[in-house]
Amino acid sequence: MMLNDDNTLKIEVNDDVIEEIEINSSKNLMYIVKQDKCLDLTIYLSATVVSFKIFFDLKKNARANIVLIDTSKGKLDLSANVIMNEEKSSFEWCLASISNNDDDKKIDVSIDQIVGRTTAHMYNYGVVLSNGRLSFAGVGKIYPRANGAKVSQVAKIINYDERAFSSARPILSIDCDDVVAMHSASVGKVDENALFYLQSRGLKESDAKALLTLAHLSPAIEKIKDEVAKERVIKEIKELL
Amino acid sequence: MHTLEIKDLHVSIDGKEILKGVNLKIDENETVALYGPNGHGKSTLLMTIMGHPRYHVDSGEILLDGENILMMDASERSKKGLFLAMQMPIEVPGVPTADFLRSAINSRRDKPISLSEFYKLLNEATKEVNFPFDMVNRSLNEGFSGGEKKKNEIMQMLILNPIFDLVDEIDSGLDVDAINYVAKALKEEQEKGKGILIISHYARLYEIVKPSRVAIIVDGRIAFEGDNSYVEKIDVEGYEWLESEFNISLKKGSEAKPKVISLGTCAIRKNRAK
């Protein structure tokens, strides 16, 4: 572990690692995952972070599975950059983010698949309450030499209020013919019929919204390995609603 | 005695008036078969009683035991004792059926139900409607067949134990065995003294769940009420006899307010003897 000139904390992953970190102020992190190694990293953004930059450099046959749970407050500028410059590496990014009162969050994730037989999946799920703002931008670049690369992007945001602002932009830039690629994005209001269905069985509106929100964010929440941490996140999200 | 009374109910959806003055009263221990041509307001009436926000009540009252429930949301109406078994149950991905049911039960209790009590209740209800128990761990209605969704509705009704069951075409799309399970569960609701307002186009269901009476909605109003002998008549003849025998127009958008026909047993016998 070392600190670069630009205050980026550089971490080399030399063994298979399962790690959880909590970020509650601005940080720059860089993970270098060495050949054949695996990083399972769960990141919790809480309190006021403002700026969070994270870099991943994946070596040959390295794997990184990243879960990021963002319940931070206020302004957030989050960028994640992934370099896959050696063969057979794989990367999965799964984010759950809530933007509430006056929060303004901008989340950019870019993945560069430079060589062949690399796999990258990006899932961004968000919920915007009250007059919160949330923007997702996912950029996947497939370089000319990246034959056999697989890439997918999903971005979904639910707005709970007329004043909420959200945008989701999944971008794939593909310069290679031999690629399996998929992307999708949706931004919309909470499903009125689903809300009614739950309420018609006696659930209060706030409880029904909590169930729907947890369901929407479940692809990320369900990946939290620590059951105590998972319960804490669920409780925190319910309280936000 | 519990009562559900609808008084001069006018309802619109997106500015279009659908219900144009519905009057109907249901007591506990009573099953009312709600009939009517397609698109004349049957499902709208049930959705409005349950409190769907898309259905705008322009005027009128819905009284449950004398209390106007129009200001209550669906959650409060549910806790007051109303249950709507839907024609097209909503799929809710990511919400496990069992978690949802437990939340629904707890919403009407001071102390949360214990896990053992919950699973006992769930086990009994799934058996009652022949719903595979392991499906309660799946997301609510997601990927369920039509029959499984309908059984899930009835299972929820049994678990939540309402005072009035509103049942919207629960038999559509069911195979013979599934209809029998659903009908048996509804018959037990009758035996428990529940009030039931049911929509079905098939006499087969009514062979088991015998209605106390029939109400026919035409162009947003209850245009005809009669005893349960009209189940067979509608099954055989459809609705055209309303025009030929009672001068009730089956056309929608008629300006003239139709006269509401209500027949007691004697009047029915007299009228049907030809």
What is the percentage of strand-forming residues of chain A? over 45%
Q: Provide mean pLDDT of chain A, rounded.
A: 93
Low-confidence stretches of chain B: 265-274
Distance between the termini of chain B: 39 Å
The dominant shape of chain B is globular
Q: Per CATH, which architecture of chain B? A: 3-Layer(aba) Sandwich
Rg of chain A, Cα atoms, Å: 18 Å
CATH class of chain B: Alpha Beta
- Average of per-residue pLDDT values of chain B: 91
- Sheet with the most strands: spatial strand order of chain A: 1-2-4-6-8-10-12-14
Rg of chain B over CA atoms, rounded to whole Å, is 19 Å
Biggest β-sheet strands, sense, barrel of chain B = 7 strands, mixed
The total count of strands of chain A amounts to 15
> What is the number of strand segments of chain B?
13
- What does the oligomeric state look like here? heterodimer
CATH homologous group name of chain B: P-loop containing nucleotide triphosphate hydrolases
What is the overall silhouette of chain A? globular
Name the structural class of chain B. Answer: alpha/beta
Determine the number of helices of chain B (DSSP H or I, runs of at least 4 residues).
Answer: 10
Q: What can be said about this structure in brief?
A:
The complex is a heterodimer of chains A (241) and B (274). Chain A has helices at residues 192-199, 205-221, 227-240, and strands at residues 2-3, 9-13, 17-23, 27-33, 38-45, 50-58, 63-70, 75-84, 90-99, 104-113, 119-128, 133-142, 149-159, 165-174, 179-189.
General description of the model:
The complex is a heterodimer of chains A (241) and B (274). Chain A has 241 residues and is α/β, with parallel strands linked by helices. Chain A contains 3 helices and 15 strands. Chain A has an 8-stranded mixed sheet, with no helix packed on it. In chain A, strands 3-5-7-9-11-13-15 form a 7-stranded parallel sheet, covered by helices on one side. In chain A, strand 1 and strand 2 form a beta hairpin. Chain A is globular. Chain B is of the alpha/beta class and 274 residues long. Chain B has one domain (3-92, 162-272): Rossmann fold, CATH 3.40.50.300. Chain B has 10 helices and 13 strands. Chain B has helices spanning 42-50, 74-80, 97-106, 115-129, 146-160, 176-191, 203-208, 229-237, 240-246, 265-272, and strands at residues 3-13, 16-27, 31-35, 56-64, 67-68, 82-85, 92-96, 139-140, 164-168, 195-199, 213-218, 221-227, 261-262. A 7-stranded mixed sheet of chain B has the order 6-9-10-3-11-12-13, with helices on both faces. Chain B is globular, with a radius of gyration of 19 Å. Chain A binds chain B through residues 191-194, 196-205, 207-208, 211-212, 214-216, 218, and chain B through 50-54, 73-75, 77-79, 83-84, 86, 89-90, 92-95, 99-101, 103-104, 107-108, 139, 156, 160.
